[in-house]
Amino acid sequence: ELNLDQLLHALDTEDCSDTPVLLQGETVAQPKAPLIEEISSTEAPEEPGTPVYEMRVVKDANEKALKIELRVELPEVSSVSECDLRISKDDLVIEVPAKYKLHLDLPELVDEDTTTAAFNKGKRLLCVTAPVAKPGP
Q: Is the whole model's pTM more than 0.70, yes or no?
């Protein structure tokens, strides 16, 4: 076995300064960090945008509301199956995951059972027609 002086002298003569020297009983500490480091993204997930829309209340000659017409432009939608449309008496929600979200409070109470919606593929336009609910007794 070589002692420390002999090992150091041997290294000087061989000019192997890059070579690690292990003494008896000494162990090499392994790095504690994993080989692959997980870095979280600094980009925030993109929020769905609000689509361009136009809402109008159609009234009769006596200025009584008959129906609400809503036209929503959805240029990134190619099929109505991508859309989720929910309507209640007083509000409407249109969602297209990762693309659009629109939540509107309706100016009049509507009859959600007779509300209709149609999607024009060519113009990528969703048209919703909601009849105004008749007042109860």
A: no
